[in-house]
């Protein structure tokens, strides 16, 4: 187990280095540097332009800039955002809880709906429910997030007035400190009546929108994995023993069918991060996705590079964790068989 | 079953929500997060809007106009042929308090000097704080204009200029000249956290700063001690909502009261909704098509007039601006003081254009180049599309225009260097003073300045521009600028294509909101019915 762990962790190092290099080069390939994008109609004198480029180290050769960056990063220094002059690390940790909260609820939605739906579809294979679920999950999987989000806002919030349009809390009625950055937790801690419910109400639509793609994947994965398990000998044996169907399906079949689903959930985390960029923009959700998009627009190199590295660190860690859990629950993996 | 019922109840509770009683809160759906709260180190309208409720300036723009009125300076005297301006400061003005800072004194001359010197003097303790880039101070030529700023007593500040220029009074009303608290600055410096000055602002304005959460919300509360127009609501909230469609949805659902920058495509629907209202005004900008008068045959006035007359600007307004633009007749938009409404529109008349070309002895087909802007600007939504439409119009009078463009920085540099024959370019005004637009066509010692794209030097035009800088009476100045508009129209160094139209939308129950021709958003005097 230990060797497996070490090998798995060691593999993340080249991934990080490659990512660091790619982000660093990619942002520099976009025309216009951070100094130029600040300039309006007035223009800027060549001396002033050169002065600011020098201040930011942009007059150095790119390879030198890269090694300087790596050196600082190895010392835990993510630099300072050019736009706000705030530390990249502290900006990230201000915004990250919002993304995490959203991703958690999106995943909760996807698992809570996707697993039972997939299991039922497998048990009732070929039924109308099965066919409907497969069609719907295909739609969910291919749904353009932006369109889906706006559609829900227009229908549920604006037309029916059931849920808030965007944001994390009703700004007129609630105002409290946010020590954790997780709105649901902070709302509970604030003790303000109704705050927690209001925070949940704000989460419903963005969680559905962000959870739709993983929901499709999880439902389909559960269904096919369940179908496979249901034809196994031990399930037939369990049935033959005279166990009630709920126990056969719920305990014997589903438990085993969930193994590949765990992997899919892990892999969906990177998808969630990508989806968060759009979902956060539509719902004015103050998370890291929106921050990264804005950093590209401003050519805010340190914020973008640092943000991408940190988000990647999260995705890589989750994948690592999933692999380890998987190794723990399935001995075949850790023994390399 | 029990679980399902409970889940159902939970969902019902979530959907129903809960309300609570509250003071009067005005919610503005803003378009983005500010970089920080100190206007002098910023360049974006978003950041200026976020700091504006908190701060005042020596002079102010009267709400909804570009007219300069007293602010923290109650009055001023201009002496020494326009080279010395003495400001008499308002007494009894209180600074805001924050959780950890309570001011011990009223606003005075030290705060004014502090606010000038931070941007001006490299040895100032705050000069390097938060990146130390004072773009506006430098762009508005303040270092070149200012000779000295000194106090003679706590409530008198004397400003000496290197050259007379009364337009500096308008500069002082701009956001970058916001007056901060020197006492607060010292307090933070002693605590070893000067950057805090730019994150948690202390000013004298109509609203005091309460809290900011990046990408989410900015909160302010009414300053009951405010010396000017009193705020009519208790709390002001900026709900940061970058997506224009989401802003519209929030406005419709009543989650915000005023909406920044609605999408032109949504305007028709907004106007039909009785719960909403839409207002609009000309943007403080202009798009022009400059003719380089140094390049024959553009040195002939008739040729320039012919080219101008050949362009169907109505089609451009309809197809490119989609209603969010209006044809320009002079360099300045109609909302600016000194605008001359007697200047006629340049007609669209290809036949007359052909006749003018023939009369000027120009052989057709005439070959010219036409530079189009590579980036979208508020006054030019699509330079390429406009370029193509112009090209088609020009072909009809026998002029073959070759479309040319470069990367934006390069484009501006080359156009300023006079490499083009004809080029699109525009201007976004800064301080609402006509000088800030008319200087674009000016020359110094008979040589066109960089920004003078047509490279056009007209002695009378220039004399009037210089004269208008030393006259302190606004009505007198307006007359000079009106004469300049006549000359400009007659000589046609450029075709003035358009000013943008800026729309703002709000709930019908919002009263007292005035749209600023400067494109800013301000909320004193705004109420909810």
If you had to describe this structure to a student in words, what would you say it looks like?
The complex is a heterodimer of chains A (337) and B (529). With 337 residues, chain A is mainly α. Chain A is built from 13 helices and no strands. In chain A, α4 crosses α8 (195-230), α4 runs antiparallel to α10 (245-282) and α10 runs parallel beside α11. Chain A is globular. The two termini of chain A are 13 Å apart. The mean pLDDT of chain A is 85. In chain B, the strands form five sheets. In chain B, strands 1, 8, 9, 10, 11, 12, 13, 14, 15, 16, 17 and 20 form a twelve-stranded mixed beta sheet that branches. Chain B has a four-stranded antiparallel beta sheet with strand order 4-5-7-6. In chain B, strands 2-3 form a two-stranded antiparallel ribbon. The two termini of chain B are 48 Å apart. The longest helix of chain B is centred in the last third of the chain and has 18 residues, at 474-491. The radius of gyration of chain B is 26 Å and the shape is globular. In chain B, β2 (59-61) and β3 (68-70) form a beta hairpin. In chain B, 30% of the residues lie in helices and 22% in strands. With 529 residues, chain B is an alpha+beta fold.
């Amino acid at each position: 187990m230990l060797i497996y762990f070490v090998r798995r962790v060691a593999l993340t190092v080249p991934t990080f280095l490659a990512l660091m290099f790619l982000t660093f080069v990619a942002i520099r390939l976009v025309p216009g540097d951070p100094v130029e994008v600040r300039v309006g109609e007035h223009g800027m004198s060549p001396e002033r332009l050169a002065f600011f480029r020098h201040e930011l180290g942009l007059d150095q050769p790119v390879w030198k800039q890269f090694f300087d960056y790596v050196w600082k990063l190895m010392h835990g220094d993510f630099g300072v955002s050019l736009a706000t002059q705030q530390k990249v690390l502290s900006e990230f940790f201000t915004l990250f809880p919002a993304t995490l909260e959203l991703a958690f609820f999106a995943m909760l939605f996807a698992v809570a709906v996707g697993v039972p739906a997939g299991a039922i579809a497998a048990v009732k294979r070929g039924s109308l429910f099965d066919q409907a679920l497969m069609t719907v999950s295909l739609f969910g999987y291919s749904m353009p997030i932006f369109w889906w989000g706006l559609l829900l806002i227009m229908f549920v919030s604006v037309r029916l007035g059931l849920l808030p349009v965007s944001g994390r809390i009703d700004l007129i009625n609630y105002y409290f400190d946010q020590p954790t950055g997780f709105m649901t937790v902070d709302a509970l801690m604030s003790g303000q009546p109704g705050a927690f419910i209001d925070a949940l109400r704000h989460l419903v639509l963005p969680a559905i929108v962000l959870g739709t793609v993983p929901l499709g994947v999880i439902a389909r994965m559960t269904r096919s994995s369940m179908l496979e398990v249901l034809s196994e000998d031990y399930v037939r044996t369990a049935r033959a023993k005279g166990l009630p169907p709920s126990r056969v399906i719920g305990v014997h079949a589903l438990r085993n069918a969930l193994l590949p689903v765990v992997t899919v959930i892990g892999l969906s985390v990177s998808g969630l991060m990508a989806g968060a960029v759009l979902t956060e923009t539509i719902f004015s959700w103050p998370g890291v996705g929106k921050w990264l998009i804005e950093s590209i627009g401003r050519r805010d190199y340190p914020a973008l590079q640092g943000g991408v590295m940190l988000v990647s660190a999260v995705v890589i860690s989750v994948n690592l964790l999933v692999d380890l859990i998987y190794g723990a629950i399935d001995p075949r993996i850790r023994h390399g068989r | 079953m029990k679980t399902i019922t409970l889940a159902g109840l939970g969902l019902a509770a979530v959907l129903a929500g809960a309300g609570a009683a509250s003071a009067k809160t005005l919610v503005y759906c803003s378009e983005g997060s500010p970089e920080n709260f100190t206007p002098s180190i910023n360049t974006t309208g978003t950041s200026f809007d976020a700091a504006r409720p908190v701060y005042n300036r020596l002079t102010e723009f009267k709400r909804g106009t570009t007219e300069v009125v007293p602010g923290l300076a109650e009055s001023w005297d201009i002496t020494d042929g326009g080279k010395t301006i003495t400001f008499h400061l308002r007494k009894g003005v209180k600074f805001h308090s924050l959780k950890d800072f309570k001011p011990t004194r009223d606003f005075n001359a030290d705060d004014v000097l502090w606010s000038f010197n931070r941007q001006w003097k490299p040895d100032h303790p705050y000069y390097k704080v938060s990146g130390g880039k004072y773009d506006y101070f430098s762009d508005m030529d303040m270092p070149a204009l200012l000779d000295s700023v000194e106090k003679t007593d706590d409530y008198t500040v004397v400003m000496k200029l290197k050259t007379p220029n009364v337009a500096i009074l308008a500069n002082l009303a701009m956001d970058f000249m916001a007056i901060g608290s020197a006492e607060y600055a010292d307090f933070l410096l002693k605590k070893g956290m000067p950057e805090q000055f730019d994150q948690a602002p202390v000013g004298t304005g109509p609203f005091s700063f309460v809290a900011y959460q990046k990408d989410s919300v900015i909160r302010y509360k009414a300053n009951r001690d405010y010396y000017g127009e009193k705020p009519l609501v208790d709390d002001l909230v900026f709900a940061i909502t970058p997506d224009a469609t989401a802003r519209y949805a929030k406005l419709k659902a009543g989650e915000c009261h005023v909406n920044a920058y609605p999408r032109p495509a949504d305007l028709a629907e907004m106007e039909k909704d009785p719960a909403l209202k839409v207002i609009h005004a000309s943007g403080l900008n202009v798009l022009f098509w400059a003719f380089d008068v140094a390049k024959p045959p553009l040195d002939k006035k008739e040729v320039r007039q012919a080219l101008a007359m050949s362009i169907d600007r109505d089609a451009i307004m309809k197809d490119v601006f989609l209603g969010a633009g209006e044809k320009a007749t002079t360099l300045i938009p109609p909302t600016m003081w000194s605008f001359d409404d007697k200047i006629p529109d340049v007609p669209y008349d290809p036949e007359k254009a052909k006749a003018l070309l023939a009369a000027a002895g120009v052989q057709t087909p005439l070959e010219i180049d036409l530079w189009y802007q590579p980036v979208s600007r508020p006054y030019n939504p699509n330079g390429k599309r406009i370029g193509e439409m112009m090209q088609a119009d020009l072909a009809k009078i026998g002029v073959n225009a070759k479309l040319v463009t470069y990367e934006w920085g390069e484009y501006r540099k080359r156009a300023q260097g006079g490499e083009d024959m004809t080029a699109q370019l525009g201007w976004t005004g800064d301080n609402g003073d006509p000088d800030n637009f008319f200087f674009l066509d000016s020359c110094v010692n008979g040589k066109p300045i960089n920004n003078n794209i047509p490279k056009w030097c007209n002695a009378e035009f220039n004399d009037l521009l210089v004269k208008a800088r030393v006259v302190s009476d606004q009505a007198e100045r307006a007359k000079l600028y009106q004469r300049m508009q006549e000359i400009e129209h007659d000589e046609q160094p450029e075709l003035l294509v358009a000013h943008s139209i800026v729309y703002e939308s709000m709930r019908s129950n919002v009263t007292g909101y005035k749209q600023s021709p400067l494109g800013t958003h301000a909320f004193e005097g705004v109420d909810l019915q």
